[in-house]
Amino acid sequence: MSQAVVIVLVLLLFSVRGSAAARPNILFLFADDQRADTIAAHGNPHIRTPNLDKLVASGFSFRRNYVFGGNSGAICVPSRAMLMSGKTWFKVDAPTLKDTKLLPELLGENGYITFATGKWHNGEPSWLRSFQRGRAVMFGGMSDHTQVPIRDLGPDGRLAPQRIGKKFSSELFADAAIDFLKNHDGKQPFFAYVAFTAPHDPRQPPPKYRKAYYRRPPPLPPNFLPQLPFDNGMMDGGRDENLGAWPRTAGMVRDQLAEYYGLITHLDEQVGRILAALRRSGRAENTIIIYAADNGLALGSHGLLGKQSVFEHSARVPLIIAGPGIPRGGSTAVFTYLFDLFPTLCDVLGLQPPAGLEGESLRPLWEGRKERVRESVFLPFMQFQRAVRDDRWKLIAYPKIGHLQLFDLQTDPHETDNLINHPENAAHVARLQGLMKQWQAKVGDNLQLPVEDRQPPRIDLSGKERQPDEWQPEWIVGKYFDAPRKTLPAASDTKGHAK
Predict the structure, then answer these.
(1) Per-residue pLDDT tens digits for 219-255
(2) How open is the CA angle 30-31-37, to the nearest 5 degrees?
(3) Which one, 173, 263, 309, 456, has least CB within 10 Å?
(4) Residue-wise DSSP of 136-150
(5) Are 76 and 32 in contact (CB under 8 A)?
(6) DSSP 223
(7) Are 300 and 257 in contact (CB under 8 A)?
């Protein structure tokens, strides 16, 4: 009997390996803080992204892709938790990812070699159960891009002591990915997760990249303001908003945009290096490539700098999928979320998805079997903001101050004209409030929302004292902060505000 059991187990093992061998590889390239409108091929003539442009041409773009808000000012934490779990932040323990099946964990159980490099902001235990191989992994939210604290996974399955990377972050992580692609034996398919820390601040691209944009700076965003005139819940003490003085000046925002664009162009070059290595490996034709980002960023839009808002510039993120069976040069403007990627890959790979996934498979969209997977999106951020939008209209609620905003995104895509108190829009407001309640019930959100608009108190943060965090290099401190650097808490004490 025992011999029969062994034979059955061996046959099952070979069956799993055999079916896995027929499945495509997955290369997941993940940017940090990249707005959806920062890819040239998606309509931005002011930025240089030749490698992402080629990926757009070879794959399928999801042009209205969102992160589902967040329960922390460090939106990266819940964003990555939702990506890896396929669930909203109401249903998963975002800091640790405990008690939930993760995407790379499931792939590893189904014959994939799982590899990671770069940022992991959800704790070491969840990383260790997700990845079998890893090099240059950063556990945390951010760092100086030239001094990245990283760890490698040893052959004994343990993480080696921390070391400091000797290259710029994007190059460091690209090197690790290229090394993995070069040495992978091909006996099993791979899932390679490359989580860059660019273009997250410090906005310190290598000099030639920022200087190129200084010479021809990007234009101010159409919704530029010197400052947001009311408190959205994150104005006082939010780390991101302290990276520039109030009121925001056109010159300061243009310089920060130049530095941000420089980070993206440098990142684009590293993406090109990785994709070239994939082609050299001979596996490009059987690899699904995903490019996405964890959240957007304001950078002068609405007088904000950070991502802690539910405006389009902070909630929308790029998503491109390319590979076997995926139409080249295709795109859609229907609503999708980052956490749709988990069920999408399960669908494409023929894997049984874990119970409780809240995302939807996007495969029917590129195959033309569905026109859309949802009619609207819900964007909940901490206890401070809630938003819901359909194809045309968007309602934002600020529960702490009782303020409401209504935008007609067809005529006002940059959300500059609040129509909440126009009587002719009362039916739209009522409909969107009902839709928001439906979303709250669906995801388990019990926050009480204002029914009528209350004019918020105006605030003016001009001249507010600011202190640089420990990760900003001295030239940025000298350029954007008018006070000397003080001794700040250790990174572990400030990570909740450090993305």
Answers:
(1) 999 999 999 999 999 987 678 999 999 999 999 999 9
(2) 120
(3) 456
(4) EEEESS---TTS-EE
(5) yes
(6) T
(7) yes
CA 33 – CA 30 distance, rounded (Å): 10
Each residue's pLDDT tens digit, 3-26: 654 444 444 444 444 466 689 999
CATH number given to 24-374? 3.40.720.10
Residue with tokens 């908003």: 241
Amino acid 442 reads K
Percent of the residues in the chain that have a pLDDT greater than 70, as a whole number: 92
> Per DSSP, which regions of 143-232 are E strands?
149-150, 163-164, 190-195
Q: Which of 56, 34, 60, 29 is nearest to 274 (CA)?
A: 29
Extents of the domains making up the chain: 24-374, 378-443
Describe the chain by its helix, strand, coil percentages, rounded to 5. Answer: 35, 20, 50
CB atoms within 10 A of CB 183: 9
Confidence of residue 488 (pLDDT cuts 50, 70, 90): very low
Distance CA(475)–CA(357), nearest Å, equals 45
Q: What is the pLDDT of residue 486?
A: 55
Distance CA 101, CA 85 (A): 6
CA distances from 325 to 212, 328, 335 (A): 38, 9, 22
CATH number of 378-443: 3.30.1120.10
- Residue 417 · residue 302 · CB < 8 Å: no
Among residues 129, 89, 128, 122, the alpha carbon closest in space to that of 106 is found at 129
Structure tokens at 400: 């702490």
- C-alpha span between 390 and 201 (Å, rounded): 32
- Residue the block writes with tokens 């260790």: 128
Structure tokens at 428: 């739209």
Question: How far apart (Å, rounded) are the C-alpha atoms in residues 268 and 280?
Answer: 18
User: Please, which contacts does 408-411 make with residues 24 or more away whose CB atoms are closer than 8 Å?
Assistant: 409/312
CA pair distance 127, 134, nearest whole angstrom? 10
- pLDDT recorded at residue 497: 40
CA–CA distance, 158 with 49 (Å, rounded to integer): 37
pTM given for the model? 0.93
